[in-house]
TrEMBL record:
Coiled coil: none annotated. Pathway: Lipid metabolism. The chain crosses the membrane at residues 12-30. This is 1-acyl-sn-glycerol-3-phosphate acyltransferase. Keywords: Acyltransferase, Membrane, Transferase, Transmembrane, Transmembrane helix.
Length: 261
């Protein structure tokens, strides 16, 4: 049954995305940039509905009151394709730093370019990265929210942390708050797998880290706060979803936490 529901959901999810991009193409590209955001936000909302109705997966967001006004960096855990779009309906005007290859995808890349997302060559250094920083500063001065994943790439739930220092440099140079977000969507929408699992999970938005810390001190605090919240959520999610098949990384981490008391 889970396999059948997963196939139905994946078909509906990607069909919904493609059909919306085609039908709403004129509205999206003739509208002002920020007004056009209603299209991807509507797609995200409809995707949540499809996941609930077809798979039986729901979520709750805690800590929305921790989101500051204006520009800030949102720093979520990254486990799944789900967390690349899921929070769009709750963000005013997000901007992503993303792989430049995504801009080359027909139609999708045009949608991304319309929102003035910031493409980057992951192997770039020096002058190129300085240009990326300047573009990011320019967008955030408009009050936009930068979404960046501290670990850089998707990680399995419970896997040992692997935080990159790039977010600390952005925190230092942009001089804005950073809002950590703990969640475990990878337990329900695993990376590199087509299966989708029913259940309920929590997205926990933590209090923002104010600007002004030394980059090293910030990096240490971000990792401490986000990992502590993630561990607590892993315990809660496993307890509240006893039939959920946990990946080996999650089982190992739960065993470590149980042993530590």
């Amino acid at each position: 049954m889970i396999a059948l529901r997963s196939i139905l959901f994946n078909t509906a999810f990607y069909s919904n995305m493609i059909i919306r991009m085609i039908i709403l193409f004129p509205y999206y590209f003739l509208s002002p940039r920020k007004k056009a955001l209603s299209v991807p936000k509507g797609w995200a909302t409809s995707s949540h509905w499809l996941m609930e109705k077809i798979v039986g997966t729901t979520f709750t967001i805690e800590g929305l009151e921790n989101i500051p006004k204006g520009g800030y960096i949102l720093a979520p855990k990254h486990q799944s394709f789900w967390d690349t779009f899921a929070l769009l309906p709750w963000l005013d005007d997000p901007v992503y730093i993303l792989k430049r290859e995504l801009m080359w995808i027909p139609v999708f890349g045009w949608y991304v370019a319309k929102q003035k997302m910031i493409p980057v060559d992951r192997g770039a250094k020096g002058k190129v990265m300085a240009e990326v920083l300047e573009r990011t500063k320019a967008e955030m001065q408009k009050g936009r929210q930068l979404i960046i994943y501290p670990e850089g790439t998707r990680r399995p739930p419970g896997a040992p942390p692997s935080y990159k220092f790039g977010i600390a440099r952005l925190y230092r140079d942009l001089d804005v708050p950073v809002v950590p977000v703990a969640m475990h969507p990878g337990l329900f929408w695993p990376r590199r797998k087509f299966l989708r699992f029913p259940g309920h999970f929590v997205v926990r938005i933590l209090p923002p880290i104010a600007p002004g810390l030394d980059a090293d001190a910030f990096h240490e605090k971000l990792m401490h706060d986000l990992e502590a919240a993630s561990d607590q959520l892993l315990i809660e999610t496993a307890a509240n979803n006893p039939d959920l098949p946990l990946p080996e990384t999650a089982r190992a981490r739960l065993a470590e936490l149980a042993k530590a008391g």
